[in-house]
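Dear Dr. K.,

Following up on our conversation at the group meeting, I've run the structure prediction for Serine hydrolase domain-containing protein from Stutzerimonas tarimensis. I'm pasting the input sequence below exactly as I used it, so you can double-check it against your construct before we proceed with anything downstream. Let me know if the numbering doesn't match what you have in your notebook.
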Amino acid sequence: MQVQGYFDLRFESVRDTFASLFEGNRQRGAALCVQVGGETVLDLWAGTVDAANEAVWHSDTLVNLFSCSKTLAATSVLQLVAEGRLALDAPLAGYWPAFGRNGKEAITLRQVLCHRAGLPALREPLPAQALYDWQRMTCAVAEERPWWTPGDGQGYAPMTFGWILGELLRLVDGRAPGEAIIARVARPLGFDLHLGLGDEAMARTAYLGRVRNDFGDEGAQRLMKAVAADPASLVGRAFGNPPGFLNSGNKPEWQRSVLPAANLHGNARSLAGFYAALLDGRLLAPELLAEMTREHSLGEDLTLLARTRYGLGCWLDQPGQPGATFGMGPASFGHPGAGGCLGFADPERQVAFGFVTNTLGPYVMMDPRAQALAQAVGDCLS
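The predicted structure tokens came back this morning:
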């Protein structure tokens, strides 16, 4: 498989690691971009984008970034905090009155951002099409009661995270959630990122397939067994209500909708650019970035059934845990996306990293492909 793009000769070993992903035809398409100190040192792509595995990946190919979306949504909300229009520790009900019932009266933005609000899932069964009905989903969130006392535990919120932040943006910013996020963190800096694809962007979007004969690590298998064993449990509802969202990435209705937790579309170049803009202060002031990236929550995650460590809208590195490290410095922060995409920054080395793929792996936390690439970058900087 021919690798396209640019690499600084100091990072030739990373280019080789990227090329090795395509050995054995297990990888359909992917792209990698890395900036160091604001300089692009790698901007690579290879493979195919279509279901027939024939059309080649281009420099402007887009892919669903899944939960990499969350940090961009969080950054948009933190900009409202910087503007004095939201407060991290004020009850959300002050901005969204319908939210303040059924035990949610005191839940704060900080608790939502670090997954301690007790709202990772919705108990009332919803039909698949509800996923694309913004009003129905935000009303369902407003009616939900916490699964635990807010602040007393942590549990990753795969989808509700986006409806909560998106509704706050709609109410406080005044623009539709997708428009607000893109206008705040993407358009001013020229990033090729989209929430709700138009026709032109859809034509550039890669078809998603799955890695064959890979059942993931112990954590992935444990989570999938829990979902299957009890669909009405917290874990079952978090990943299965509304049903089907884990398998909807190729559907036009998914691509055209705005789901701030899960369906941002973009490329590796823009994902790395976003983290570079966080590092150099173009998106958040240094004091607010420090607050975003300090440890807010650490422990056993009631949703992911694994040890997680969160800042505000981002994951923090856990160097001693193979599935929970970005593969570079211990101060790294960012967010993985289901299936293998990864965006993060290492502030100590001034690295901004973006990896995207249309070949979805089964891992719950960090994908080994992205970790191997990050480790290779770190080795080049040692």
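Two things stood out to me. The chain has a mean pLDDT of 96. Residues 69-82 form the longest helix (14 residues).

Best regards,
J.T.
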